[in-house]
Amino acid sequence: MQSTMQDYQLTIASLMHHGTSVHPDSEVVTATAEGSRSITYAELGKRTARLAGALRALGIEGDDRVATFQWNNAEHLEAYLAIPSMGAVLHTLNIRLFPEQLIYVANHAEDKIVIVDDSLVGLLAPQLPHLETVTHVLVAGPEAAQANLDSLRSSGKEVLLYEDVLAEQPETFDWPELDENDAAAMCYTSGTTGNPKGVVYSHRSAYLHSMASCTGNVAGLTFADRVLPIVPMFHANAWGLAYAAIMSGASLCMPDRWLQAEPLVRFVTESRPTISGAVPTVWNDVLTHLDDHPEVKLDSLRRILCGGSAVPVSLMQALRERHGLDMIQAWGMTETSPVASVANVPLGIRGEEEWRYKATAGRLLCGVEGRIVADDGSVLPRDGEAVGELEVRGPWVTAGYYASDDPDAEAKFDHGWLRTGDVGTLDHLGYITLTDRAKDVIKSGGEWISSVDLENALMGHQAVLEAAVVGIPDEKWQERPLATIVVKQGATVTADELREHLAGDFAKWQLPDAFAFIEEVPRTSVGKFDKKVLRQRFREGELRVEPLS
Amino acid sequence: MQSTMQDYQLTIASLMHHGTSVHPDSEVVTATAEGSRSITYAELGKRTARLAGALRALGIEGDDRVATFQWNNAEHLEAYLAIPSMGAVLHTLNIRLFPEQLIYVANHAEDKIVIVDDSLVGLLAPQLPHLETVTHVLVAGPEAAQANLDSLRSSGKEVLLYEDVLAEQPETFDWPELDENDAAAMCYTSGTTGNPKGVVYSHRSAYLHSMASCTGNVAGLTFADRVLPIVPMFHANAWGLAYAAIMSGASLCMPDRWLQAEPLVRFVTESRPTISGAVPTVWNDVLTHLDDHPEVKLDSLRRILCGGSAVPVSLMQALRERHGLDMIQAWGMTETSPVASVANVPLGIRGEEEWRYKATAGRLLCGVEGRIVADDGSVLPRDGEAVGELEVRGPWVTAGYYASDDPDAEAKFDHGWLRTGDVGTLDHLGYITLTDRAKDVIKSGGEWISSVDLENALMGHQAVLEAAVVGIPDEKWQERPLATIVVKQGATVTADELREHLAGDFAKWQLPDAFAFIEEVPRTSVGKFDKKVLRQRFREGELRVEPLS
């Protein structure tokens, strides 16, 4: 018996047609130095068609790659929609990549055209001569004409103004029929070993991830929402918030390059988003700003999504208690599109116990299956206790990497499951608790010590701005935890006080034996703690370890 | 460039595994004569495995069809999950089908096994001997052992107790790998011409429809919700509410056969659903009951979905104003899985204008494309004015009918679009306004008269329980509207008063020239007004038309 249902393809084009035609009055607001600028979704649809026409006119055919080097703004959104919808592949370049990584990924993906923001011309120009396959650069943004175009032109590439090429094109485009399994977009993960590895999303994976984001258990987006993606569109698709907003008809509030607490808070009060998403450091800065400006209220926000690295409970508690803001932790990675789990609190849980669940990496979404696997490859019980590596699979999880020459790439997969590299537990309600990145695990005397738990507890101390805990070699115990601490401006705290602060919540053998006060925690290009660098600094004697009394 | 994403199949099995493993504490509550009975989703998962084992043991292989003849209850839900997940095809038999239709559809689908509720044995028994391909009948429900099993056995089929066959099977089942395009379930539409026609849903269509139901623009289901599907599971999949609840982890409140206002309202107050769905007549009865019992509050309900036929604005207003209940109209049909549009009010609309949007058939969901087509096949503008037939397409819209011998079946499709048979307009915000079924259209002097608008207005009169308007032949005008009226118990109203009541909202030429008071509106087997019967009664002189002064 055959199903009688239509063979309708789940494509970014169909999502774009829906959003721009059924929700023509929704808007994209982009922050500017003075305030903001806006276009409606109806206009967005026309500009998307113009962009597709322009790219086709410049020679983009088939699955050619078009790269973006942009902040979160209306033009980046146009690229998000036009490039996949015309059948090409969107390659979001991380503007924070180290130069050699940027050159590697652009050449590896064979990018043909790069769209760059006016404000990022200076950052791109030095690398542009080395982007071998790039033929054209389009400079976007209100100040594009005033940018230093010569610095780009000296590369020998053809440099055009984005608005000029759009103006030459009609408001409609002959969108091709696409297969939902066609490549739509790609994003490289900044691995800490070897070259970056590319994940190639399909139209289908982006569509299904967007649908999941619109469900009640994730963000429950409706066309009455206003979505503020602070997490960059060059980082794991801004957690899918851009496509999900278009799908639901929610308006988008785009912060562009105004990511410091003061302009960001101002943009929130002016553009009144209902949902936002960013990494913990951003919210930490926002919290400090709100604490200093008690007259400011972010009362339009009904839900704040936070992830990218473990979210300190103290941050969530401070936001709720002092500012009435509800922060929800989510977990995922570039390889999972990225959202895989969201830490909603289970039904019937009240009071203090709530925080136990809000501290987890979240509950598995429908569509993402998870399991915990031991070192020997056996699947461990889902009891919230057995610790092992988290493996996931699902329609928006990658099965491999694009043309990778990394011999380790294959080891990231286990019979159809993605090995996440995250270590932790899974409980009978589908909540994931992560204790460490596999590569950052601290094993002392045969027992795990969770750096994440220690960091969370340390960041709960009023004098601590940030804390990163790494394992350092120990003759007797194999490894022991070292806590590196960034103290808040104007505050003071001693190693003994911090150890005392931890003593109530941890067994004695879990407490760090060594504390080092540092200026800032080194970070990777996507803003995560770079513990490899911390361990290296320790080895090279660059960290001054404070004596404990 | 190939996408690197996993080839993960969207199946009812994966939805079932998610719901029963990640939400083990959610529950299925089934109404009983005395109160209710409950099982958890963890138990549901085990019983689903047992049922699959039992069906396999009874010879169900491949895509064999297993039929259900059941109310909305836990056992029907087990069939919903087990049958498609084991690779077989669920055929939901409409218990209200006329005997010859029931026999036709069961034979046409070649059903092998029928699962029947204890309370429905008497309804099935007379037809059972004619169900040629059926070999076994499983009798489900707490009273199964007390049912008149002999009345079934006399058919020569093997008759077994559902609980007995489940008890013999293990709590786990070796679920097969399925393709998402495999047939999962089927439902026949009770066409008013020719034999019923079967729609065969795929795993993919059911999965995507469930995801859509969980999005904020539809029901926004979360695991904190409790879903009460009053619309039968044998009627267009209970609007997808059963699968959507499992997917989101929402609990289910199943009314079984207690669909009269009094036990239904009691079940709502006891099981405390947050979301419910039913046709207007059910809510009409509930409204009358609530009006008579002002002490009863249905305050657990945050959203009431209504559809299946046009929802009178007066009903929605009465529920909101007198009982604080928010009713949302949705539109769809068996051929669209069924939900295609939901009448959320656009952003920024307040006061009286709200009702204009709440009166529509709703706004197109992402995934469903719609267009209005003229008689000559041309596509009309989406301006809210041009009237034509609504055509839709999408991943949960059918492309045909199962092995249909109806020569008209092909005419239901237009180059990949489903011709819905509904006539109306589409506006620039994607709102559908339906004025008539194509076959019920009234065309007077070359102009459309909307029977739906007239019915809505008539049902807004305090003395009118129900109103159905049909076109009757007219020498001068080709057709003129005849209003048939069911007066509320104890109330009185005259034809003149009703015409006067309409005069404010309609042009004179649109007003019915003829009124007939009837005992009840004839209905099809799915509870819709059967206007074919009304027109026939008029032709045969069975309707007494009241003189207007």
Automatic annotation (TrEMBL), chains A, B:
Gene3D superfamilies: 3.30.300.30, N-terminal domain of ligase-like (3.40.50.12780). One of its GO terms (molecular function) is ligase activity. Residues 454-528 form the AMP-binding enzyme C-terminal domain. InterPro entries: AMP-bd_C, AMP-bd_C_sf, AMP-binding_CS, AMP-dep_synth/lig_dom, ANL_N_sf, ATP-dep_AMP-bd_enzyme. Residues 22-402 form the AMP-dependent synthetase/ligase domain. Pfam families: AMP-binding (PF00501), AMP-binding_C (PF13193). It comes from the Bacteria. Keywords: Ligase. This is Fatty acid--CoA ligase. The lineage of its organism: Bacteria, Bacillati, Actinomycetota, Actinomycetes, Micrococcales.
